[in-house]
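in:
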């Protein structure tokens, strides 16, 4: 945990110095998610794969997101209550959250999305992974997550998406 706090302090020390940088961090942490969801929906509508394939990608992605974010993440938070960094430490807080910190719900959601997309289209998946990384590092800089929160959420999202993908193949969905 000491390394987790040290890394958090390194990232969080970047906040509060430059208005433009802080604005970028707020955008990435709070608003990039809406662009990613919109891009995903446009990809489903865009004819880069057969209609049946797009429906499968859509459902594998949605099920992965729901299970990772609303299932596994909330189950962990039910049993393990890690306070947000701004509750227990002096931080540069650019954004606010109110629930428990570990694992990151944003991380679980968007890494599940990125993984599911990657399993069907590598190029698009890499783009979603890069966006998820920027979004979640911004949440550390913004003062609402420790690095282990992000890694825990990413692990949940990736593992759930792989599991849903594997089960969908076995069930011939």
């Amino acid at each position: 945990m000491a390394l987790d706090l040290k890394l958090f302090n390194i990232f969080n020390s970047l906040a509060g110095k430059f208005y433009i940088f802080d604005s970028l961090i707020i955008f990435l942490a709070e608003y990039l998610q809406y662009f990613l969801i919109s891009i995903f929906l446009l990809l489903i509508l865009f004819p880069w794969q057969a209609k049946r394939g797009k429906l499968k990608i859509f459902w594998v992605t949605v099920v992965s997101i729901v299970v990772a974010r609303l299932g596994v993440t909330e189950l962990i938070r039910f049993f393990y209550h890690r306070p947000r960094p701004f509750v227990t430490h002096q931080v540069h807080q650019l954004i606010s959250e109110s629930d428990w910190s570990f694992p990151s719900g944003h991380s679980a959601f968007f890494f599940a999305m990125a993984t599911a997309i990657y399993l069907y289209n590598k190029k698009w998946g890499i783009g979603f992974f890069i966006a998820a990384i920027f979004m979640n590092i911004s949440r550390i800089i913004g003062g609402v997550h420790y690095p282990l929160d992000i890694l825990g959420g990413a692990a949940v999202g990736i593992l759930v998406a792989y599991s849903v993908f594997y089960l969908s193949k076995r069930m011939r969905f």
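note: The CA atoms of residues 12 and 80 lie 24 Å apart.
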